[in-house]
Amino acid sequence: MEWLWALIVGGIVGWLASILMKADMQMGLIANILVGIVGSALGFWLAGMLGLAGGGLVVRLIVGVAGAALLIFLLRALGLFKKA
User: 6, 34 in Cβ contact below 8 A?
Assistant: First the structure.
């Protein structure tokens, strides 16, 4: 059951990040889920390295979206993801 929640939250986080980075038209459901899950992991890793770990649900959502947006930025910088 936990994997289902990870997919749902990952999809929402990836979708919000794609809107923030203006990449929503290029990404489908699978890409949103993958970017959301991997980006959230990246965001939480960076937040932990900076000593910003912890917080409530809203803080975790913000960190997840920021990490997913960072992942989209990095993919664009590497040429793996084109800007709209």
Answer: no
| Residue 66 in domain | yes
Domain count, the chain: 1
pLDDT score, position 55: 78
Q: Give per-residue pLDDT as tens, 49-67.
A: 988 777 788 888 999 999 9
User: At residue 50, what are phi and psi to the nearest 5 degrees?
Assistant: -90, 0
Q: Nearest 5 degrees, angle CA 70-CA 72-CA 74?
A: 70
